[in-house]
Amino acid sequence: MTDLLTRDNLLLSRPKNEPVLPPFQNLQLLSNLNCPTSVDDLVRDSLAKNTRRAYLSDLAQFEGWGGSIPATAETVASYLAASADIFAVSTLIRRIASISKAHRARGVPSPTTSELVKATMHGIKRTRGCAQREARPLLRDQLLAVLDAMRNEEPKAARDRALLLIGFAGGLRRSELVGLDVTDIEHVRQGIVLHLRRSKTDQEGAGRKIGIPHGRTRWCPVAVLEAWLAALGIGAGAIFRPVDRHGRLHDARLSGEAVALVVRERVAAAGFDPVRYSGHSLRAGLATSAAQAGVPSWRIRAQTGHASDAMLARYIRDGELFTDNAAGALL
Asked: Is 214 marked active-site?
């Protein structure tokens, strides 16, 4: 086991264990004691595992503070006021959503829609500010510099090159990237087609396809991925797997947390400050770089899978800060 506890290890590369939560007194999420077990199971599965985990964690914290379901508007407002200096605004917004979900699941009115709760949350936002901490995009030229700086320590380097390039070229979320299997790849004349079986915005598993074309630089994402698959030497299972410090491959699937570690490690090795870089930097980097190159937003959305221009807006806005800049035309 000692060999596995390295920076690129199974501890960070296996599915997360369910969080240890305090015992619930009054909180039940999407549970109806009058329904058969089969119905209860299907209702529970209507939520993604990570979403359900987040809801339960939020409700456990609310109960630990002294709340219960159902709750009054005064109780929820008091909870928000008591938590304003402890948690981020984004966390409190999610807590409100979890409390609301628990009320709707029980078929009782949610106090989160009351003017008292809304006004309390509005006051917190005005006092604390509500700007979200965003991942810094890994732009195209930075990505190429990172790849050029990588030493050829096989097989980890082969995996990391493929991870960075496919994550960037596909505009993939961490979960989509680590969820890829060998059988999800279709080779075509123009490059490869990735078959995403499920994603954050596709919880029902309808799936979608993403085209990854042959690259025009020496860092072709298709060629680099093929080199990694040749090193794997398998025809099925997860594409991205842990590699221990001795260069041994393991059968487990890499985790989202491990993707973030790879990005930061490789960015730092190339001489960039790794602060604010994360696994999301690859997806943000594609969107921002494409916006800077003048790619229409609808084409960027076709690659990233964003549901609307509004969801993509901050990338487009950041990418076009210096395009036709008013000050640039004057100074």
From this structure: no
pLDDT class of 262 with cuts at 50, 70, 90: very high
- Angle at CA 98, nearest 5°, toward 94 and 101? 135
Helix axes 140-149, 281-292, angle to 10 degrees: 130
Query: 228: which 2 tokens?
Result: 């990694």
Q: pTM higher than 0.85, yes or no?
A: no
- Among the listed residues 103, 241, 250, 280, the single catalytic one is 280
Point out the catalytic residue in the list 200, 209, 248, 299.
200
The answer to whether residue 306 is catalytic is yes
CA distance 299 to 297: 5
> How would you classify the pairing of strands 208-213 and 191-196?
antiparallel
Sequence-distant (6+) residues with CB within 8 A of 88 are: none
Cα–Cα distance list, 153 to 3, 149, 158, 159, 248 (Å)? 17, 12, 8, 10, 12
Catalytic, out of 95, 173, 250, 266: 173
> Catalytic annotation on 101?
no
User: In the annotation, is 266 catalytic?
Assistant: no
Mean pLDDT value of segment 295-317: 80
pLDDT tens for 94-108 read 999 999 988 988 889
Catalytic option among 55, 79, 277, 315: 315
280 is catalytic: yes
Identify whether 103 is a catalytic site residue.
no
Of 101, 159, 174, 306, which one is the catalytic site residue? Answer: 306
User: Max CA-CA distance within the chain?
Assistant: 71
